[in-house]
Amino acid sequence: MLGGRTRPLLRVWGLWPTGVLGRRPLSCNAESLEGSYSLQCWNCGSGGGPVRGNGFFCPRCRALQPPDPTRDHFSLMDCNRSFRVDTVKLQHRYQQLQRLVHPDFFSQRSQTEKDFSEKHSTLVNDAYKTLLAPLSRGLYLVS
Hints:
- It is a single chain.
- Helix 4 (about 85-100) runs antiparallel to helix 5 (about 110-130) and helix 5 crosses helix 6 (about 135-140).
- Residues about 1-35 have low confidence and may be disordered.
- This protein has 6 helices and no strands.
- The chain is mainly α.
C-alpha cells in the first residue's frame, strides 16, 4: 500500500536545518538557479545533491536546496494519489514541512537559502490548500 517514495520521506521527518561552519562564499543567487534543478548542491558542490526522496537539504552541508519542479502535490504531502485523502494526516504533514522550510527559520541564513525557503513554503502552502478542499483536489487529479 505504501509507495516506494515513503521510506525516504520518513527519514526527512527528523531533519532540521543546522548551521554549518566553513561554507564557501556564494557565487550565485536564487534567480540564477531558478529552473535548474540539479543533483549537485549549490552551496558545497557535492555530488549526489539533495537526499533522494527528501530534496530539501544537502546531506553534506545541510544547505536548503532549490525546490524540485517535477514533484507533485501528492508526493510532497506524502499522500496516495487518489481522491480520498486523510485530512488529519495531511494537516500533520503540512505542519511538519513548514517546520522544516518556513522562511522564519532561515532569517540568519544566506539570501539564496531565504529565497529557496520562500519557494518551498509557497509550494507546501499550495499543495496543502489544493489537497484539503475536495473540489480543488479533484481538479488537480484530472489535470
